[in-house]
Amino acid sequence: MECMEKSHQINAMKSKCDNKININEEKKLVDANLSILRSTKMDTTPYQDDVEKKIVLLKHLLEKDPKAADLKWSLFISACNTYRYDTCLRPFPPMYIKNECKDIEALRKTVELIPPLAVIFRELHEPNVYANYGPAIDLLHWVLIRLRDPYIKSISKENYDSVLRKVPSEMLVAAPNLIFQIASAKQSTAEEKWKYNGQGYSTLYAYHGSRLENFHSIIHYGLQQNMCKNSLFGKGIYLSSELGVSLPYSPIGYGWGGSVLGSELSCVALCEFINHPTIKKHNSAIRIQNTLSESVPDKYYLVTNSDLVRIRYLLVYSQEVHPTRNNESSGLLDWFRQHKLLTFMLGYVILLASVGLTHNKQVEKYYRLFVQKTGLD
């Protein structure tokens, strides 16, 4: 009997220990799940900023430098609408990433509904603006405010010559319509790294041409040697001391129909780079025999390390540059430009209606009466 009682006591103690172990394991599992939930919330909260704060920041930016905001948004739209969006649209808006997949169709639908920025600026002063333009405000805030390094700044026309004189051109080329500065934010890691790499070396300026849809990624990630497809004289970033050499590599591209800068744009980057020994440049003493990679043509630079290059300015060419206005007529005209197909269909309906009315007897009767009373007959 005593042996049986001792056996029961031992089993009871084991059961208690097992329960404690199970409880501890469950507690650890719950803590782990809570930790995952907290980390998930921490990952998403930066994009759930206060609505009022978003509105205030957007109003300030659109009032302070509307053309710079328009250009940044146009570059984003160009990258969004290209079939190469997977490489051009970087960074990608995180609110349109679902289950690690980019929902480009949902993003494009939101973009299509966004009116000209002048209209948005006016609507931001209305009390119910977020109810009407919630997705638009969230996306505009992410593109124009959250992507703050680097930021785009308009250059006044009187300073255009001083910018272009950084690389004196011997070729006759058309002057850009607009010039924007690409400025680094305070405590920029990329800028500090560039300055560190440039210790003990001088710097030079040169141009780089690329397609319009590439500039959203170029501005935020810089020029990357692995992304440059042209490798005639070796792999790397191709720069030129002549604007006329880089300009053909920047064909006119379609940006945004609601832009005051014009829907068709072309951009050339004016870059500052460290004059490092690894940079290939033209050397007339080198005679090319078996390979073209030993030298580059005159007016060219070939940079094989992307950390040596920083974009300082964007030269913008546009077919049509409209003044920035916040009135109704400007918004209506921009809306018609943005919705050309709908405008054409509306005009066609009006034309059919007018043709039908001209053959209506009642209309003819009132028309004759109007002509008689006004004395036009």
UniProtKB/TrEMBL annotation:
Pfam families for the chain: ARTD15_N (PF18084), PARP (PF00644)
Keywords of this entry: Glycosyltransferase, Membrane, NAD, Nucleotidyltransferase, Transferase, Transmembrane, Transmembrane helix
Membrane-spanning segments: 341-358
EC code(s) of this entry: 2.4.2.-
Keyword Transferase: yes
GO MF annotations, alphabetized: NAD+ poly-ADP-ribosyltransferase activity; nucleotidyltransferase activity
Domain PARP catalytic: 131-326
InterPro entries recorded: ARTD_PARP (IPR051838), PARP16_N (IPR041400), Poly(ADP-ribose)pol_cat_dom (IPR012317)
Origin: domain of life: Eukaryota
Similarity comment: Belongs to the ARTD/PARP family.
Name of the protein described by the UniProt record: Poly [ADP-ribose] polymerase
